[in-house]
Amino acid sequence: MTSYQFPDSFLWGAATASYQIEGAATEDGRKPSVWDTFSAKSGRTLNGDTGAVACDHYHRYESDVKLMAALGIKHYRFSIAWTRIIPDGRGDVNEAGVDFYSRLVDCLREHGITPHATLFHWDSPQALEKRYGSWRSREMAQDYADYVTAVVSRLGDRITNWMTINEISCFTHLGYAVNADPPHAPGTRVKRRKDIWQTCHHAILAHGLGCQAIRAASPVPCSVALVDNPAVTVPIAESPEHIAAAQKAFPTCWANGGILYPVLTGAYSPVLLEQLGWDAPEIKAGDLETIHQPLDALGLNIYTGTYVKAADNPSGYECLDFRDSYPRLNMPWLWMLPEALYWGMRHISDTLEKPTLPLFITENGCAAQDTVNAQGEVVDLERIAYLRQYLKAAHRAVAEGYPLHGYFVWSLLDNFEWAWGYDRRFGITYVDYPTQKRIPKASFHWYAECIQQGRVV
Ligand code: PNW
Coil, strand, or helix at residue 370? Predict the structure, then answer.
């Protein structure tokens, strides 16, 4: 019998992001991000929802930290809102905004919870969108690095786990592509595919400059990571031919070959560049060296994947489409594919120059149609079923020696799910938005038990 026991050193956590939970959008000097502007325009988000109030975490962080302590997590991943720290995107630092994170971090530490801070989770300053089109301009990378310096020099005495940017492929593609469905902020439809690749290139450049800025500003030794969402190619069967096909397909997926490859190896994947042709971004001399910074860890958000099989065609593989009847959670893209977590670890380990680089699952979770029953409980059995299977796949990766060091569930709380507003719930805690009451779901209690026992229960 397998007990699915993780090593004692395995880190159990939960994750959130600033715009999705904080609210208090105009308080203490915060100015609009692209998400404030975008969600306020009619028709951009489901039901016209915005993050103006969200989970009101800005005012409720103390009780939310108590909730984390009750869950038993020792690690919490959250993000810092650029527009609280530097409201205009560049220029003066707003100390009142820094103070919020300072209080949050102190509260976490008082409860024995280690903070893991993401420096950018999609809420770009609207002022920079107006000034030069934010990520469409190369200037964004330097402004981002200056913002990072402002944060790390003020909070680096108490935060030592830093993540530069969350899911570059998502906010660039969904924010700018003509076929983004549904589009994300800023919602600009760029004319050429090359222009999307250029926003992506600016973002990985920002990551590189950000790494340098963190190391220069941190008063103590710290860990620097990127958070990526790889496209995970899963072999249809674990036979040598299909495994080889999945491995071959991995670097050709745009998000892998165009983000992970330059960051981890210092070069865009050659097969991807060949596919892109004229659509490849303009890369200036020295960019790849800047992008290819030494990392202390790599965060991976894995929710789903794609099945791949060996095929008798020039590429040697074929990616398989899901049919509508394939099991799916409550998002159009969220196919049930627990093996993706294991294959993500395996493909990425093959890509790494340093095979011991610590890997973390920085997000994994699912949306479900949660409701409060007559007893006041939320019995989210599909979320438990989902998490249990993905955690077993994580266990397999650890058992086979892949350097997976920890897992953060997405998310601690139901929250503003971007273009889907409050309609889609990813939390292990139910949020009753009219009253802001928090109700731990069945999955919360289940996850607490896993943490307590250090295994999949
Ligand atoms: C992530 N996909 O986004 C984000 O980091 C979170 O902010 C978000 O709430 C969470 O996952 C759930 O959506 C994703 O299309 C968006 O595969 C889209 C995809 C994956 C992750």
Answer: coil
Q: Mutation test of ligand 1: which of 410, 420, 422 has the most ligand atoms closer than 8 Å to its C-beta?
A: 410
The answer to whether residue 135 is domain-embedded is yes
Q: What is the mean pLDDT of the chain?
A: 97
Q: What is the pLDDT of residue 61?
A: 99
Indicate which atom in ligand 1 lies nearest the CA of residue 334: 17
Q: What is the CATH number of the domain that holds 337?
A: 3.20.20.80
Give the residue numbers spanning the domain of 356. Answer: 11-453
Q: Are 35 and 122 spatial neighbours (Cβ–Cβ below 8 Å)?
A: yes
* ipTM of the complex model: 0.96
Query: 316 phi and psi, to 5 degrees?
Result: 90, 0
Centroid of ligand 1 to alpha carbon of 286 (angstroms): 31
Strands (E), 176-295: 223-228, 233-235
Into how many domains does the chain fold?
Answer: 1
Where does the pLDDT of residue 407 fall: very low under 50, low under 70, confident under 90, or very high at 90 and above? very high
Residue from 129, 167, 339, 417 carrying the catalytic annotation: 167
Phi and psi (nearest 5°) for 444? -60, -50
Separation between Cα atoms, residue 84 and residue 187, nearest integer Å:
22
Residue closest to 364 by CA, chosen among 305, 411, 307 = 411
* Tokens matching residue 438: 């928090």
Q: Is the peptide bond before 137 cis (omega within 30 degrees of 0)?
A: no
Mean pLDDT, to the nearest integer, of 123-150? 98
Contacting residues for 390 by C-beta, under 8 A, at least 6 apart:
302, 338, 341, 364
Is residue 152 assigned to a domain? yes
Residue 4 lies in a domain: no
What's the confidence (pLDDT) of residue 254?
86
| Active-site residue flag, 377 | no
Q: Considering the chain, what percentage of its residues have pLDDT values greater than 70? A: 100
| pLDDT tens digits, 232-244 | 999 999 999 999 9
Is the predicted pLDDT of residue 1 greater than 80, yes or no? no
Instruction: Report if residue 167 sits inside a domain.
Output: yes
**Residue 167 annotated as catalytic:** yes
Copy the structure tokens of residue 256. Answer: 């892998």
